[in-house]
Amino acid sequence: MQLALEEARIASQQGEAPIGAVLVREGVVIARAHNRVEQLGNPTAHAELLLIQEATVAQQGKWLHECALYVTLEPCPMCAGAILLARIPELYFGAFDAKAGAAGTLFCVTTDPRMNHTVGTWRGICANESIALLQQFFRKQRGAA
Predict the structure, then answer these.
(1) Is 36 helix (H, G, I), strand (E, B) or coil?
(2) Is residue 26 among the annotated active site residues?
(3) How many CB atoms lie within 10 A of CB 108?
């Protein structure tokens, strides 16, 4: 999760919402990313989606079995769906997302037994650090507005 927090800090320095993600397979980092929505002008350029795209290219396949995803903020519905589609078996996230959380807060996309795949989901990992980064970023944004 520390590497995901590093990615979140990079995002913040670049004027992006401080959300970072890291994908690990057998203890080895195979992809890392941070939000790039503003930089790319693309509302889908979330850390999780960018990471999945990078990892599937690196792994030369669409399935990310035997991987663990670490992300600083609870995935939104779009990202939770992508996590399912990539067949990522484990998700660890930091801060809960009261406005868009789809891994337990508003929706339970990752653990819904009606889906074709479920994801082992661990919540609140390094939550205080994740929350602090988000609060700092949005305080700064409000001050600039």
Answers:
(1) coil
(2) no
(3) 16
Structure tokens at 47: 């850390």
pTM for the model stands at 0.95
- Catalytic one of 7, 16, 26, 48: 48
Q: What does the pLDDT look like over 109-135, one tens digit per residue?
A: 999 999 989 999 999 999 999 999 999
Tens of pLDDT, residues 54-79: 999 998 999 999 999 999 999 999 99
Angle, nearest 10°, between helix axes 47-59 and 2-13? 120
- The two tokens of residue 83 are 């996590």
- Helix runs in the chain, H state only: 2-13, 37-40, 47-59, 77-85, 127-144
